[in-house]
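Now for one record:
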Amino acid sequence: MKRKSLLIILTLVLTVGLALAGCGAKEGQAPEQTPNNENPPTTNEPAPETPSVKKGGEFRMNLHTEPPTLDPGQAQDNTSGTVLDAIYEGLVNVDEDGKVVPGVAESWDVSEDGLNITFHLNKNAKWSNGDPVTAHDFEYAWKKVLDPKTEPAPPYAYQLYYLKNAENFNKVNNDDGTPNSNHIDDPNQVGVKAADDYTLEVTLESPTPYFLGLTSFYTYYPLHKSTKDNDKWAAEASTIISNGSFKISSWQHNNSIELVPNEHYHGKENVHLDKVSLAMIDSSATELSAYQTGQLDYAGHPTGELPTDQIPSLKQSLPDELIIQPYASVYNYIFNNKAEPFDNANIRKAFAMAIDRQRIVDKVTLGGQVPAFGWVAPGLLGAEKTFREEHPESDYFKEDIEEAKALLQKGMEEKGYTKLPEITLIHNQSDAHKKIAQAITDMWKQNLGVDVKIEQQEWGVFLKNRTNGNYQIARSGWGADYNDPMTMLDMWMTGNGNNDTFFSNAEYDNLLKETRTMTDAKARMENFAKAEKILIQDNMALMPIYYYTNVRLTKPYVKGVYIDYKGNIHFNNAYLDK
């Protein structure tokens, strides 16, 4: 039996677990590898029920805003992802300990060379209307994401490039706009095929140690066949047929979403709640008040937020309910590398070097965040330790006001400026984002003598403007989708659907393309480090500010809710112990 492949992957699992334990992440660590090709499980056995579990009840939390989309193939944000992770299920799940466990697939076989994976689907898996979930539903969904005719173009199409021929099917043109001579018109050549209703065959371009865990990500979710005939299927609760623990019972746009258990879900015995109510409160003060008055059972990240100035007092008044937990994510500002004046690297560097990150986390955010001088978040897997331990970020740049002034002057001379053009910073609606923006623009004014206008935008409008390049500086945040530095770095490759900076560097692209086919862990990490140096030290395509922490309040009677190493919330198996 494929012992060589199994031993390699199990070694990676142990490495990830030890690395993340060292970085202080307490929950949901290292989800990428627990392949079961040696002794595949035949059933998804439910965990023994906790004696104190009391069936029923309503779990209430804040979604903060209207989800931009509930189409798994179009999603790219935490708000949408929180709902999608509750109402859909992928081939595998990732449990609280970060291990890959069966989802729709009850077992899988991995070839010795790691290139072929055969998923065996659970025949009890059903859609919320009672239809069986089949391998064809996965094949259709994945190929729709990759189809160059899909509009709008799915932002995460590149996450499927691990499949054989996927990139050449998706890309009609090269990154420079010239026709892709290797383009494939035939979707049947893409490395995913339903051999029958309950067998999905996957062929990879190269061995990808974290691929199994990646299939738990929403871009890899299946789609019901009804979506083929309705372009607007994801816009209303009545037309969303899903396959997860919950289904949408009510969607009052810009107000609330209600979820109820999916009676056809194959693991329904592990779903204890009667209802999940997701409010859309965009004020942190109102959210905290709703929690304190018993209207919410959970408040704070990843979708809501607590008033930053209240965190010190909450530590005193609710020490058993307030949790501050680091996770693999970066808060940053992105520069539009194609828009003046930030089409100049020295001007970008000047803005990044002219702020005080420690002051921001100590005086503004107050949530125990750590200043960021690199892009790859702490905790992500390296060769033997974490990537950040093996490749410190300390040499990329330092905060230096005098150097920043010199770089700004140099950049202005390169651009032929006697005065900078008017500059606007945009951010989505949030009290915290507003405070951070005000603090940073004050620093730019004081340290560089530059006036920057602040503009707050509604979430959907903000995302559209950022994606379309209608900005100069924009607030951004990025969290790991899987446990490998690639999840932080490949998004900045030329033409990537999430590359809202429009940064383009051939050496950077080639390094990451080469890394996709490498199996030597140390050499892969060296390539990642070289790429990060190009991104931050050489070009400052974006401005890292701090590494996130999850700051949240949870009522004592809420059990089974956890935040994974990526910062995502999981309440599918939660219960209320009242």
